[in-house]
Amino acid sequence: MNAKIQVLLCKCCSEVPELLNIAKLEKLASESGNVLSVMTLDALCDGKELAMVVAEARIKEIDRAVVLACQKKDVSPALIKAYKRVGVNEHLVQIVNIREEVVLPHAAEQERAQAKAQTMLLSALARSRLLQPLERSSEDMKTRNVVIVGGGVAGQAAAKEAAKYGVHTIILEKTGKSVTAPGVVMPHATLIGGKGYGGNFELKIRVGESLEDLGAASVVIASGGGWSTLKGALAKAVRGAMPLYEFHQKLHAEQTSAGTVVFMDTPDPAGKTLKVQDYAWDETLETAIELKRKHPETAVYVIFQEMRASGLSELAYKEAAELGVKFVRYDRSATPKVDPKDPTTLSVKDLTQGDELKIRLGTMVFASIPASPDNQIIAEALRIPMSVDGAIRRGSIQRGPVSTPKPGVFVCGSALFPKSREVAAAEGQAAGKLAGEFAARGSIEFGGIVAQVTQEKCSACLTCVRTCPYEAPFIGTASKAEIRVQACQGCGMCVGICPSKAIELHNYTDDQIMTESKTLLGGDF
Amino acid sequence: MIVAKRKPLNEIAEMLAPYKKVTVIGCRSCVAICLAGGEKEVKMLVSALKVKNKRDGRKQHIEGTVVERQCEKEWVQEIEAQILDSDVTLSMACSLGAQTIGDMYPKHLTFPGLNTGMFGVPEEQGVWSEKCVGCGNCIIHTTGGICPIARCAKSMLNGPCGGSANRKCEVNLEVDCAWAAIYDRLKLQNRLDLIESVTPAKDWSTSHSGGRRVFEREDAKLTPHQKKGKGVT
């Protein structure tokens, strides 16, 4: 097949011509093989020039494009839509970000900038010639169920929000407590296993003593934190112990009781080792300062093994100390103790001075609470990653604060990290909205840039099956690996690790990548 | 499976330095599965050598290829021309593959690219552990399915020894004591009486100590007539 390439050079609102010689780039492009059309545009992102672009593409029977512009997300959606109308496959449109990769970093080096832009153009052209058109297909969801794991504030908020999309919400509540939410509420129900992918999950749940199967289009994890399971020696022995966020709320509502306040890192449920999520120290210091400002007469202690405050929060040590907050460091081998006969006195050995301190307790505040041990089971059931703290990990704090890396699985509330009811409810709403919207689509799209196995090369070594985070590869009836395209996210992990080079990622084949790299770097390797 | 590990790049480069034309040959069997010598490793090594040669200013022609099983002559024969066209072959199979090529083309140089390690089991992705040494006389039905020859540092038939403490071996505190594991397994199987009985010295004539071992199966061997028909000698 002979590639027919259209090259678009966007002036990026005239930022580009100030640095680069557009005429030279145009000439280079038009003299390259397979290039049938070269157009220079003022601002591709405003869409006014798209009609002109596709008219030319239609006349020249263009089948692929190389676009020198800025960020993909600014240019791509409208352009791809326009190209689609004239039969240019979306996977054959390559966007080269010369604004961020050339214009901005090399603003003061005209020669280097020009050379780099030219090399990038040539390598994109080299790759473009090798690209293949790819199709996407779709599959109907078998159910409109949105399964919500946990019936606390976050779970209830999620159910309410998801129900607005006309989907069927099902809350799995671990305990028998009453849950007010639309849809079905299953008491004494937990998620214990599952398979499938966003749109068509087949979950295994335990309801009371029996095991049941449950289909789901999307899942919201609202399983909460581990406070209720915190049964370490200290929490049991001390009356009035509470997690930091609860104390914070009380402080704001002027409901704190008089007497000494001790902030401490937190025993894990087994009561043996102690650990604190790092972020909790920032909040501990802020809360201690706030408390001391409001009630200077209150004696405030911060007891810790190892404290890490981030960035400027380190200054809070000094501020807290100046306000009279007492810091006591102890050693793992001598953890603070409360005498069961006298639950109001905490004894702790000060590591710095070597003295045994006895502190008369008013309120005991745990700096952080451990993640729920249920997270492990939920994460394994849905094959999603956990954080080092044992919480459920979200995709990205900016782009998906209530999303997990797995499409169709959302997370909210203290399953992420301990937080107040208000924040948990807000997150629940957000997760519910996304899960509801996901399930209401009714079908899932897949394909395009996905992995494919060359079965003759496969030795069924299971490496891809073990590596894939989405469970896309499996060993099929021919005893060779196959890819479940509905689950494949095109991440390329199986491709990279396959020892027999039996797997390729569409449009990221070795040939395509090496050709591009060789043009970029020059030479053979 | 046979578990191997690639030799360090510098060692390989030094081995190949005097030669102008190099063929690197991988194997799609055990060493591919243990991520040591499959097509990916061959391609990566070829690339690494090319980069190193470029940096060191050395001129060398390097090509890579892979065969299904390098320990079998028929598969090796398929790339005979490529082997003989080079000054040296670097085998990325276990030593069996390297020696097969070496025996087939005795005048040609065949060097090992891997260190062949052991008969191992993939415990998890990227972790292989030794569980058999091929002694030729298996006794694991009496030891709870755990081989003391491979898994005990002293290959003791009656254990544990006095160096076993807290389920660890005195050789290295990170090594599990095989006999502690055997005890646990036999206890689980309700066969602890086996640990009391004394196992006499083993017949080691089946092991490597008697020199190179050759297994023959008369009923599977081809007759001279059949061999002639197939052109195999």
What is the topological layout?
The complex is a heterodimer of chains A (525) and B (233).
Chain A: E1 5-10, H1 15-19, H2 22-30, E2 35-41, H3 50-59, E3 64-69, H4 72-85, E4 93-97, H5 98-103, H6 110-130, E5 136-140, E6 145-149, H7 153-163, E7 168-172, E8 184-186, E9 189-197, E10 200-207, E11 210-216, E12 218-221, H8 233-237, E13 241-243, H9 244-252, E14 261-264, E15 266-267, E16 274-275, H10 279-294, E17 300-304, H11 315-322, E18 326-329, E19 337-338, E20 345-349, E21 356-360, E22 363-366, H12 374-382, E23 409-411, H13 421-440, E24 443-447, E25 451-453, H14 463-467, E26 473-475, E27 481-483, H15 493-497, E28 503-505, H16 510-521
Parallel strand pairs in A: 1-2, 1-3, 3-4, 6-7, 6-12, 7-8, 12-23, 13-22, 14-17, 14-22, 17-18
Antiparallel strand pairs in A: 5-24, 9-10, 10-11, 15-16, 19-20, 20-21, 25-28, 26-27
Chain B: E1 2-6, H1 9-16, E2 21-27, H2 30-33, H3 39-56, E3 61-67, H4 73-77, H5 80-84, E4 88-91, H6 95-104, E5 109-112, E6 114-124, E7 127-132, H7 148-151, H8 178-188, H9 193-196, H10 224-230
Parallel strand pairs in B: 2-3, 2-4, 4-5
Antiparallel strand pairs in B: 1-6, 6-7
Task: Please give a structural write-up.
- The complex is a heterodimer of chains A (525) and B (233).
- Chain A is of the alpha/beta class and 525 residues long.
- Chain A has 16 helices and 28 strands.
- In chain A, the strands form nine sheets. Chain A has a five-stranded parallel β-sheet with strand order 8-7-6-12-23, with helices on one face. A five-stranded parallel β-sheet of chain A has the order 13-22-14-17-18.
- In chain A, helix 7 (153-163) runs parallel beside helix 13 and helix 10 (279-294) runs parallel beside helix 11 (315-322).
- Chain A is globular and about 90 Å long.
- In chain A, 41% of the residues are buried.
- Residues 269-274 of chain A have low confidence and may be disordered.
- Chain B has helices at 9-16, 30-33, 39-56, 73-77, 80-84, 95-104, 148-151, 178-188, 193-196, 224-230, and strands at 2-6, 21-27, 61-67, 88-91, 109-112, 114-124, 127-132.
- Chain B starts with a strand and ends with a helix.
- Chain B is an alpha/beta fold and 233 residues long.
- Chain B has ten helices and seven strands.
- Chain B has a four-stranded parallel β-sheet with strand order 3-2-4-5, sandwiched between helices.
- Chain B folds into two domains: 2-118, Rossmann fold (3-Layer(aba) Sandwich); 134-210, no CATH class.
- The interface between A and B is medium-sized, with 15 and 17 residues.
